[in-house]
Design a protein that fits this description.
Elements (H helix, E strand, L loop, with lengths): L2 H15 L6 E8 L2 E9 L6 E9 L2 H12 L2 H4 L1 E9 L6 E7 L2 H9 L7 E8 L4
Antiparallel strand pairs: 1-2, 2-3, 4-5, 4-6
Helix pairs in contact: 1-2
Length: 130
């Protein structure tokens, strides 16, 4: 595993997405003999985290290379969704945006890593493509 390549690829992904280091988490884990990378975004306003995308590969470098390839093209291959939601103990309605192939995938990204009862979804809208 080359730490230099890992740091370079993570930096490239962050720069391509235009996010600060605190807004993007790279979470690696071993899963069924492969490495899985969960790329998590953190909203700076309400500090909620959501799945951006996951990739699997032989090692961390391969996962990051796949992720970099994805971030360079996802706007052309996936639809944009607007989700309005509220956390269980919060009075404020939040709006989040997801890129996904369908509404189910957008909701999976919203609910990633949390109990379904912690967030109430009020609307999911497929945004017009430009």
């Amino acid at each position: 595993m080359d730490e230099f390549d890992i740091a370079r690829l993570e930096r490239e992904i962050r720069q391509y997405l235009g996010l600060e280091p605190a807004q993007l988490q790279f979470e690696f884990r071993e899963l069924e003999g492969q490495t899985r990378l969960d790329l998590i975004t953190v909203n700076p306003r309400h500090q909620q985290s959501f799945l951006f995308r996951y990739e699997t590969g032989r090692d961390q470098v391969e996962c990051l290379e796949k992720m970099l390839s994805y971030v360079k093209s996802f706007r052309d291959t996936e639809s944009s969704y607007t989700v309005q939601w509220r956390a269980r103990d919060d009075r404020e309605l939040h709006t989040s945006y997801f890129r996904a192939h369908n509404v189910y995938e957008a909701l999976d990204k919203l609910y990633f890593g949390r109990d379904l009862n912690t967030i109430t979804v009020f609307s999911v809208v497929l945004n017009p493509s430009s």
